[in-house]
């Protein structure tokens, strides 16, 4: 499914508005991102209660492109200073509040990020199967300092998804801050987006205390996942219901 235009489903810059403060403070601790465990969630007062929707997100990419660093950046973990190959599978939990544009309803999106080492997937077939099982979205990563990783994106998309799949696909270019050493040109990025109809996001550099660096990507995930489920539910005015065979996604009231 083609990605929806930014801001067509949710209020894109809501995290900057004063009325979002009560919700975003619930994912902070001492002005830094709060790290959530698998069984933890933001606790809201009754008058600000917001539904939570859960999605599984697989992070795909060649070894060394920054999959683990991106997961850490999105989840508020400390970003590793040195590269190391993920030996197995790692999961991280990200909570992200959004306001729906049409109804002004506030939702907490819970993204469960799955990161698996490339060598581990090659050695153990069941790891890729586990990552793809009941997956809702895939982030395809490449590094701006590795042109081969960019050329490999199309192969990854063909390998992990099918046009008929109900899977949101987004592409993320890492190490964008190393622009002096970039091997991927803007014209190549533009051409890729025109042909694939998949948006490309850019990340890199130091993480600030604000949400500006992660908001575009998390908003895009939330927007496209919610839009896809609303279409599947045949009505954008009704909350998406979990599939009978999909226990991973649920709406918590």
Automatic annotation (TrEMBL):
Compartment(s): Cytoplasm, Cytoskeleton, Cilium basal body
This protein's record includes keyword Nuclease: no
Keyword Chloroplast part of the UniProt annotation: no
Main location: cytoplasm
Keywords: Cell projection, Cilium, Cilium biogenesis/degradation, Cytoplasm, Cytoskeleton, Exocytosis, GTP-binding, Nucleotide-binding, Protein transport, Transport
Pfam families (alphabetical): Ras
SMART domains: RAB
GO MF terms, alphabetically ordered: GTP binding; GTPase activity
Gene Ontology biological process terms in this record: cell projection organization; exocytosis; protein transport
Family stated for the protein in its record: Belongs to the small GTPase superfamily. Rab family.
Protein name in the entry: Ciliogenesis and planar polarity effector 2
């Amino acid at each position: 499914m083609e990605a929806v235009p930014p801001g067509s489903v949710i209020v894109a810059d809501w995290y900057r508005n004063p009325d979002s403060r009560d919700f975003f403070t619930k994912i902070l601790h001492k002005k830094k991102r709060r790290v959530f465990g698998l069984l933890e969630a933001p606790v809201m007062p009754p008058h600000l209660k917001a539904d939570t929707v859960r999605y599984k997100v697989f992070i795909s990419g060649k070894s060394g492109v920054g999959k683990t660093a991106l997961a850490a950046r999105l989840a508020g973990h400390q970003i590793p200073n040195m590269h190391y190959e993920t030996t197995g599978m790692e999961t991280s939990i990200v909570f992200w509040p959004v306001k729906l544009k049409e109804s002004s309803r506030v939702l907490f999106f819970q993204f469960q990020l799955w990161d698996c080492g490339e060598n581990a997937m090659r050695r153990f077939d069941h790891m890729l199967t586990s990552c793809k099982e009941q997956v809702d979205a895939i982030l395809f990563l490449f590094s701006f300092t590795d042109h081969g990783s960019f050329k490999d994106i199309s192969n990854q998309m063909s390998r992990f998804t099918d046009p008929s799949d109900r899977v949101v696909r987004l592409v993320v270019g890492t190490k964008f801050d190393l622009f002096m050493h970039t091997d991927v040109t803007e014209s190549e990025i533009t051409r890729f987006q025109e042909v694939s109809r998949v948006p490309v996001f850019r990340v890199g550099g130091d993480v600030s205390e604000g949400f500006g660096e992660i908001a575009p990507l998390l908003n895009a995930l939330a927007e496209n996942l919610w839009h896809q489920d609303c279409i599947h539910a045949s009505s954008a005015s009704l909350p998406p219901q979990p599939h009978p065979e999909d226990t991973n996604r649920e709406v918590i009231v």
